[in-house]
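Board notes (copied after class):
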Amino acid sequence: MAYDLMTHKLSNKGPPSASAGEVASLEHLTGPSGGSVDWLFEDSLDVLLDPHRHIHIEPSGRQENGLNIVARIERKKENFEIHANDDQSIWVNGVAVKSKKLNHLDMIEFCDTGPMSRYYVHSKDEFTHRSIDDILGNAIAYFRNSRQPFLRRLGNTIRQLTHRFVSETTLLFRAGVIVILVFLTVLIYQQIQLSRLLQQQVQSDSSKIEDISKILARSRKEALTPGDLESLRVELGERMSTTADRISDLESRGNITQRIIQSATPSVVFLQGSYGFLDVATDRMLRLVLSKNEQPVLLPNGAPLLSTQGEGPLAERHFVGSGFILKNGTILTNKHVGLPWEYDGSVKSLTDRGLKPVITRFHAYRHGYEGAEAVELAEVSADNDLAILRYLEKALRSAGLSLSETSPSVGDQVIVMGYPTGIRSMIAQAGEGFISELQKAENLEPWEITDRLSKSGLISPLASRGIVGRVSNARIVYDAETTHGGSGGPVLNMAGKVIAVNAAILPEFGGSNLGISMQQVKRFLESINVKSSTSLPAN
């Protein structure tokens, strides 16, 4: 019998007496004897293995059971030496030996199939407990020195640790381990949840940026390219030729129509702007990611790569519209021109996901005035598609348009003025010479084209004539021709006064258009304490 660490009871052989100095032991790590300890209290001991690989350590020459002797351990002064039997093999610290002086913590493997034991040197009082360091040290030593295949070594190491932690440690320690394991489990679960939330946030941010990239890609498709100019020369040239004939027809019908158009033209403004996206969480604008050669990086779908980091150009969406100057010097237009994202579902959905549209540039251009004039949104209507813009700096004075005091009647003639199709219509009106110059230019950005048009004196609204088909307190329906870009322009009666603000096209009614009546315009102006004949207060 041997001293058993699992039960902490001494066998009948017991440890040596206290009078002895340092004593030694073999702690068996693997095999059927794993977990037990044999104390080396004789000067010569034989190590035997039974058919089931149990280790037996007996005084030399006393064994009577006929077991196979694999090694002999002999005391040499204060130390022990191990000697392999003639036909047996032993390994110390992974090295095959025939004879070896043993040192504290040596690992001994008996025969080709094990088992393994560890040699300890103790003080006279150290007969009982093994520390956690000892348990871990034994497991590591076994793993490093065993000649078993890797997976078997790993399995044996795990089993050894589990068994010894469960059986050889105190109840308090085991309770502490359980508490730590529970804590780690909760922590790991929280980390997994946080990782999922982070992944969802990353996917959401990626989705937001991808959506904006698609919007900007759509803007790129809408922008003019050199290849568009030649087809624009033919297609829009023919269309504008027809429109020019209509204007000539209007003017030829009488001096009144001619005077209305000429008088109103300086007050009808072309509005051009752009907006970007502010990430509310970081307070940074989305920007284009540039390559090493300073070109925008494009995704496989053709959309630009965007990021809130870096110093690339702002990711901007371009927009255009029409408006007209009131007697007080401010500009009346549609709300969807002043807030261009209001009626764009693809943009509006992004505001619920932490992105805020922000106007980056907003300019007004007028016939007869060279250059752009910066404007800003002053007021918007809560009930109608109406907005007031004001100039950021003192603007060149215009007479402005007057609002009609009376409502039109069905059958009345009206004149609609504005900038339908935006830049494209003005390019078509400019003629082949201007288009040829554009084809030679390297920069076809909307701002550059508009500046060229303004410097050439080619900013001029189109006018079309129609008949009022329906009248209500809120809306007026008429059949004068217009299209995208004409929104916000004035609808004039034959006295040259504004009876409505052009707002929408009604294709289901044979190309009819819809305007917001003067009753609604005046109600809006009164709600913000603004009269069309007085100036807005400065910022």
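Comment from the instructor: The chain has a mean pLDDT of 78. The longest helix spans residues 171-222.
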